[in-house]
Design goal:
Distance between the termini: 25 Å
Number of helices: 10
Largest sheet: 8 strands, mixed
Helix content: 40-55%
Number of strands: 8
Shape: globular
């Protein structure tokens, strides 16, 4: 199935690049940290048999532009522009911090039919919130390389892991994406899910895997998911067996398909 590459202009004039593939009801995929749309591309291919899938590069990433100063509402406007092209209401899927952005878009009143999120890393509990706030503070003045290191340490990477990552060929590509890490941090906010998400009336599927992420405290994503499940008025909570923080698209796509088609 062919993929059409295109762009749309957001409200502040920023060009947002996206790939469109498939046919059927529109689905928009929202990537997480350090993703320019590449991570969601295999999932787009799986969903394209039933849906028209829009997989975009968030501002500051890939072929998309960027216009300072940053604000979460600008990323919501980016999604609004993309939804207009898709002919909403759309189904939204957000992975990791992209899930927080998808929920913010729904709370802002965009034309959204349903929202599915996977392992949104809201910190829950005093220790996790404290570590998260320290990360946000240090991230604000960090160089791209240091920002990546802060991100890895927050996720539980060891000194050895970081030395190996810095020596890897992919490090240069990650450094180009590192200036967007504060964007993800802003989408997630200062701690647990914000109370305004209680305004999201659409059905929301709150997903986690059961494999966790090495280095993070056991149950990190589950605690965040349970907090979302408690807050959102129309949420369903589901664990996808055998999956880590980046889920296998062949496993995830049927779960999303069943939810999106009701």
């Amino acid at each position: 199935m062919s993929t059409v590459k295109s762009t749309v202009t957001s409200q502040d004039g920023t060009t947002i690049a996206y790939d469109r593939t498939g046919a059927g009801p529109p689905v928009v995929l929202v990537g997480g940290g350090l993703d320019d749309g590449v991570e969601n591309a295999p999932l787009a291919a799986e969903l394209a048999a039933e849906f028209t899938v829009f997989n975009y590069a968030r501002r500051g990433r890939g072929a998309s532009g960027d216009t300072p100063p940053y604000a979460v509402r600008r990323e919501v406007e980016d999604l609004d522009a993309l939804i207009a092209v898709a002919g909403g209401p759309v189904h939204l899927f957000g992975a990791s911090s992209g899930g927080a952005l998808a929920l913010e878009a729904a709370a802002a009143g965009l034309s959204v039919a349903t929202v599915a999120v996977y392992e949104v890393p809201y910190p829950i509990g005093d220790d996790e919130v404290s570590a998260w706030r320290a990360y946000r503070t240090n991230l604000a003045t960090a160089s791209p390389g240091d920002a990546l290191e802060l991100f890895m340490r927050l996720a539980g990477s060891s000194d050895e892991d970081i030395v190996g990552a810095r020596a890897a060929p992919v490090w240069a590509d990650l450094e180009r994406l590192a200036p967007t890490l504060p964007y993800d941090a802003a989408c997630l906010g200062d701690g647990p899910p914000p109370r305004r998400l209680a305004d999201v009336e659409q059905p929301v599927l709150v997903l986690t895997g059961d494999a966790g992420l090495p280095g993070l405290a056991l149950g990190y994503f589950d605690r965040a998911a349970e907090a979302l499940d408690d807050l959102l008025p129309n949420a369903d909570r589901l664990t996808v067996p055998g999956q880590g923080h980046v889920a296998d698209p062949k496993t995830l796509a049927p779960v999303l398909s069943r939810f999106f088609t009701g």
